Each structure stands twice: as C-alpha cells, then as structure tokens.
Amino acid sequence: MENPKILYFVIPCYNEEEVLNITAEILKKKIENLLEKNKISKKSRILFVNDGSKDKTWSIIEELCNKNSVFQGIKLSRNEGHQNAVLAGLMTAKEYCDMAISLDADLQDDINVVDQFVEEHYNGNDIVYGVRSKRETDTFFKRFSAESFYKLLKVFGVEIVYNHADYRLMSKRALEGLAQFKEVNLFLRGIVPLIGYPSSVVTYERHERFAGESKYPLKKMLALAFDGITSFSIKPIRMISLIGVISFLVSIGILIYSLIANYLGNTITGWTSLACSIWALGGIQLLATGIIGEYIGKIYNETKERPKYFIEAFIKQ
Ligand code: UDP
Ligand code: MG
Fold first, then answer.
1. In a 3-state reduction of DSSP, which class is residue 118?
2. N or C: which end of the chain has fewer CB within 10 A?
3. Residue 136 above 80 pLDDT?
4. Residue 51: CB within 6 Å of ligand 1?
5. Is the separation of the CB atoms in 112 and 167 below 8 Å?
6. Cβ 23 under 6 angstroms from ligand 1
7. pLDDT tens-digit series, residues 101-120
8. Mean pLDDT over the full length of the chain
9. Between 20 and 244, whose confidence is greater?
10. In the prediction, which pLDDT does 186 show?
11. For ligand 1, what atom is nearest to the CA of residue 214?
C-alpha cells in the first residue's frame, strides 16, 4: 500500500489497573502486526482515556507513555461515564488519525477482527460496526437484559444496530460528523447511525472479561437504556396522548351505558354523572398533557440542534 492510513485505538478506562498492562501489550502487538503488513501508518497510536479512575490506572498509563511513544493518554478531571470517555478519546484522536477504533479496556471484544475493520475501511466504508454473533460467555441475566434493551429501543423507534456496542471503526470524516452532534445526553449507539456514511458490519464472538470486574452495574445499564430512549424518541409522549384518546372513548361508552342504566332505574342517584365525569375529565386531561408534550417534543428536538445533513459526495465540472 502506498500511503497506509493512521489508525488510533481509543480505550476508555475506569479503574482498570488489573487489565491495563496486558491490554496495552496486546494492542501494541496488534499495531506492530498491522505495521508489518503495511496496513497502517507508523503514526498509528493507542490512546487511553482515564475516566476519573480511583486506582492506579492513570499512573500505569503515564508509565506506558514514557516507555513507548505508541501509547498516548488523556485524563478526564472526573468520572464522566463510559460514553463521555469514548467521545473524549474519539474527539482527541480525530485531529491526528484517519480512522479510529473504540474498544473496551477489558478486551472482551475480539481484537482479531481489527484487520477486517481496517480492510472494510479501505473498501470505502466510513463506519464499521462490530456486532456480537453469540453471547455464550455472558451470564443469562446480562444476555437477557442486553437483548431486551435492544428490542425495547426498537419498539421506541430508535435506530440502532442490533447487538452492537461501542466497538467500531470510524473514519476521520465520520468523526467530524460526530463532532457536530452537540447533545449532552450522549448515546453513541443511537447517534452514529444518524451520520449515515457508507458503513458495514463485522461479526465477532465476545469473550469474558479476563480480569477485574464489570464497571457497568445494573444501575448504569438502566441509566443508559433510559438515556437511549429519552434522547432519541418522543414516543413515550405520544403514548400519553393515545391513552388520553382511549380513556375519552371509554368515557363516551360509559356515558351511553350509564344513561341506559339510569333510564332502567337500577342506579344510585348521582352515580351516572360521577362515572361520566371521572372518565371524561381523566381522558381530556391526559390528552391535554399529550398535546403539551407534543410541543415539548418539538422544543426538545430543536434544542438538540442536530446537524441536518452530511454531504457524502459533490460532483462538479
Ligand atoms: N468505563 C468508563 N467509565 C465508566 C464505566 C466504564 O470509562 O464510568 C469503561 C471501562 O473501563 C471499560 C468500558 O467502559 O473499558 C466498558 O466497561 P465494562 O467492561 O465494565 O462493561 P461491560 O463489558 O461489563 O458491559
Ligand atoms: Mg467489559
């Protein structure tokens, strides 16, 4: 290859002292291997993002950087969470790289498919999604919760790639697109497909974490799912309107029913008016909330100031 491109690995690290040295060694080997095959430029780097770790993670990163210039490190001032750490890394890498691959510090995502990622990029893809083929190594609970998470997002109309986490390659152009999303509630898996440049999928098997424990407890996972839905969908608001319409229709049914019951004379005085007003008022209130919600939904979409388009090609004479 004439001009191999610069590859950056971006690795978010939160309390990863147990795995960092091993991960660094494996990634370094990968870079060397790709260099030998002349697939990437000598300027390729491994960029660690320390996400406010409380253990020795940062001093390990400093040590690695001092030893070998293939390593780079950035340190966030406090723990900002996985998504923000990945973004910080990608936005830093964007200035220096032609393509960046984000992956977790525990190397649960098979790094042998990196070659395919790079190949797919040379084939003209701006985004390459790593998709898990199986989840055998995950516990039943993790698998169940993760798969329900993807299905739930689908129901709410959020466009995501099934079984794809944050293991992906992005070209410089795609990273520049990503930089234009200004939203604070970050859900990368939802944003990246919106960039829309040519993309492809590479499947791999997910391993077990080789040391240390998951930094994604149920609480953080639920928060991510909630963020995913509320940052991408106004369907929940629509549901309120729908329930409003349904209760209002029910109220009409009840009105007819209670008038008949009243006419037949087998009701207590006052029941008819009470039964009707409870349903009618409830329905109208929900509907009103839903309508206000529609406007809030509009405001919410406006405040995101999302980029409206990305130009993929421009032909002129
Ligand atoms: N991580 C992070 N900040 C956090 C939590 C996690 O940067 O607040 C990183 C962590 O170091 C790892 C990646 O995000 O590199 C994924 O975390 P983990 O492997 O614990 O999640 P799981 O694989 O269990 O879903
Ligand atoms: Mg993990």
1. helix
2. C
3. no
4. yes
5. no
6. no
7. 999 999 999 999 999 999 99
8. 89
9. 20
10. 82
11. 20
Residue 86 CA, closest ligand 1 atom number: 7
Q: Nearest ligand to the C-alpha of residue 10?
A: 1
Give the domain ranges of the chain: 7-219+307-315, 235-304
The per-residue pLDDT for range 141-185, each reduced to its tens digit, is 777 877 888 888 888 888 888 888 899 999 999 999 999 998 888
290 touches ligand 1 (CB under 6 Å): no
Cβ of 149 closer than 6 Å to ligand 1, yes or no, is: no
Q: Is the pTM of this model over 0.85?
A: no
Q: By alpha-carbon position, which residue is closest to atom 1 of ligand 1?
A: 82
Residue 124 alpha carbon to ligand 1 centre in Å: 30
Q: Are 81 and 188 in contact (CB under 8 A)?
A: no
HSE-up (13 A, CA, CB side) for residue 90: 28
Distance 117 CA to ligand 1 centre (A): 22
Does residue 89 have its Cβ closer than 6 Å to ligand 1? no
- Residue 194 Cα to ligand 1 midpoint, Å, equals 24
CATH class (in words) of the domain with range 7-219+307-315:
alpha beta
Nearest to 94 by CA among 202, 189, 174: 174
Distances (CA, A) of 245 to 24, 62, 248, 282, 296: 58, 60, 5, 10, 19
